[in-house]
Amino acid sequence: MPAEPSGPPSPLGSDGGGLRDLSHPIDDGMPVYPGDPHVQLSPALTLDRDGVAVTAMRMGSHTGTHVDAPSHTVAGGRTMADVRLDELVGEALVLHVRGLHDGQVYDWDLLEESGPVPEALPPIVIIDTGWARWFSGERRTRHPALAPHAARELLRRGMHVLAVDTLSPDPTGGEGFPVHEAVLGADRLIVENLRGLDELPTRVRVGFFPLRLGDDGAPVRAVAFLPAEPRSVRGGTLVSD
Questions:
Q1: Is residue 122 within 8 Å of residue 87, measured between CB atoms?
Q2: Cα separation of 166 and 195, whole Å?
Q3: 16-59 pLDDT per residue, tens
Q4: Secondary structure (H, E, C), 186-227
Q5: In terms of pTM, does the model score above 0.85?
Q6: Hey, where are the domains in the chain?
């Protein structure tokens, strides 16, 4: 089956560093998790008729690239009104787990395929399965899933935010949500549907900036803060290499 890429990541910065957009664009009719509200965008006001352009939006709180608050799966859990912005900004460990097949459950051994996972983790762990390329096709629902044991071990080592490039860290259409129960049940956070992870370094600073909703989740603008390329002095002038 040919890949159905969702397009290259959108750079927000210039030169070799700056900002990299890790978010899927929100479009009319875009893919959503099975059973979630469909995304509907339509003109509410137009320049010709009203003198201004305004778009009417109908969508769920877990549309596109988004964050899950504990209350998404935990009765009485924190809502987005209780989530501090600084919980969603910080240093991240990026684990590139490639070569996975449809529906595969990846465990600790695959997380460590490129090297040992540190005993003390940064607050954010990003798992790059490469599945973002299937976001626009039906194969998106057959994504790989994280083993619950591995999620619990990441939590033990200090992870506060689990971020993935799939619809969910749990199997879509599977029985229950064991990874959600582990992570959100520990009062931590989950970010889903990232993109553009393949070129990220193993350590990078990221930010997930949610709409200011007070409920079970919110779409986010996900951004990686990339270091600028090395600079050198040539002929007395500071230039980028």
A1: no
A2: 9
A3: 469 999 999 999 999 999 999 999 999 999 999 999 999 999 99
A4: CCCEEEECCCCCCCCCCEEEEEEEECCCCCCEEEEEEEEEEC
A5: yes
A6: 18-26+60-227
Residue position matching structure tokens 């599945």: 131
| CATH number assigned to the domain covering 18-26+60-227 | 3.50.30.50
Count of beta carbons in the 10 Å neighbourhood of residue 226 = 20
Per-residue pLDDT tens over the stretch 165-181: 999 999 999 889 999 99
2-6, 119-123, 161-165, 170-174, range with the lowest pLDDT: 2-6
Question: What residue spans of 130-172 are helical by DSSP H?
Answer: 148-156
